[in-house]
Amino acid sequence: KVGCIHGDVDISIQVPRDNRRDLDNYFKALLDLLVTCKIIDDDRHIQALHIVKLDLEDKKTCLVTVRPAC
Question: Are 19 and 53 contacting, i.e. CB atoms less than 8 angstroms apart?
């Protein structure tokens, strides 16, 4: 379900394990995209950010989960 989450958020990002990119290269572009697509108001509201490499079925996809911060 997509819609704007106002206020503080926690974000989890899952990327393919066999991807050769450094994990830190995912952050900025994805966070800017969340703001541009109006998923979050502003990336300054991010309270927690978690990124992990997993064995994902689609090697060209990442999974981003955004939740209101606790």
Answer: yes
Q: Give the pLDDT mean for 30-57.
A: 92
Q: What is the CA radius of gyration of the chain?
A: 12
Q: Residue 1 above 70 pLDDT?
A: no
- Output the DSSP codes for 18-63: T--S-THHHHHHHHHHHHHTTSBS-GGGEEEEEEEEE--SSTT--E
- For residues 63 and 68, what is the distance between their CA atoms, to the nearest angstrom? 17
Distance linking the first and last C-alpha atoms of the chain: 19
Tokens coding 41: 């108001």
CA 12 – CA 34 distance, rounded (Å): 12
State residue 32's pLDDT score: 93
